[in-house]
Write a structure and sequence with these properties.
Enzyme class: lyase
Largest sheet: 5 strands, mixed
Function: Catalyzes the reversible hydration of carbon dioxide to form bicarbonate.
Low-confidence stretches: none
Number of helices: 8
Distance between the termini: 63 Å
Helix content: 40-55%
Catalytic activity: hydrogencarbonate + H(+) = CO2 + H2O
Protein name: carbonic anhydrase
Oligomer: single chain
Radius of gyration: 20 Å
Strand content: 5-15%
Pfam families: Pro_CA
Number of strands: 5
Length: 224
């Protein structure tokens, strides 16, 4: 009697990673759902937990402020394994931040890096007070203020007075600083493997607005 070997189903092929533009559109679509009050809460169930236990394949690195009102997976309506999140007060960066972002791009293959600032940022407000009045904090909070100071000085020199202008300048400078300091990230952008975008988030309505981009190809439709 000949036994029939059990049938085996070949594993599903791993889908290719999204392009930087596709990753950006995916992120912004989630923000629109959050703003409209129609979140889908994707990838937040037990199946996704099991799927991501052996390996992670996030589609974006999100480098944002540590502000408690800036929870990335909520405001972009994403779930487990979608975003590789790095957060510091005022999204200031040191070697550990740069290493974490490079890890997301080089080892995890993220095609998109997002710098996320927001209005009513305490780090920017404290820096403006330090620049204008000479008041500053002690301990390592002073280090945060010193790292934000160049953004505030540039914005003041341009004649800006509105909070939104200071936030946008700090986001732009953070994007530039990332590419200046990380050769790996700059090479990935130059090769078309990744893009870096700067966004500014409005706390009152939940919208994320584009401030600057590096390496993001134009949209092919009106869905951006």
């Amino acid at each position: 009697m000949t036994s029939t070997p059990p049938s085996t189903t070949p594993p599903s092929p791993t889908p290719p990673p999204p392009t930087p533009r596709q990753a950006f559109d995916l992120l912004m679509a989630g923000n629109r759902r959050f703003v409209n009050g129609t979140p889908e809460h994707p990838n937040q169930d037990a199946a996704r937990r099991t799927e991501t236990a052996p390996v992670q394949r996030p589609f974006a690195v999100l480098f944002g402020c540590s502000d408690s009102r800036l929870a990335a997976e909520i405001i972009f309506d994403r779930g487990l394994g979608d975003l590789f999140v790095v957060r510091t007060a005022g999204h200031v960066m040191g070697p550990e931040v740069l290493g974490s972002i490079e890890y997301g791009v080089e080892l995890l293959g993220c095609p998109l890096v997002v710098v996320l600032g927001h209005d009513s940022c305490g780090a920017v407000a404290a820096t403006r007070a330090a620049v204008m009045d000479g008041t500053t904090a002690g301990g390592y909070v002073r280090d945060v203020i010193e790292r934000v100071t160049p953004s505030v000085l540039v914005s003041r020199a341009a004649g800006h007075t509105e909070d939104s202008d200071f936030i946008a300048e700090h986001v732009r400078r953070s994007v530039d600083l990332l590419l200046d300091r990380s050769r790996a990230l700059a090479d990935a952008v130059e090769a078309g493997r990744a893009a870096v975008v700067g966004l500014s988030y409005r706390l009152i309505d939940g919208t994320a607005h584009l401030v600057t981009t590096r390496g993001l190809e134009p949209a092919t439709d009106a869905a951006v």
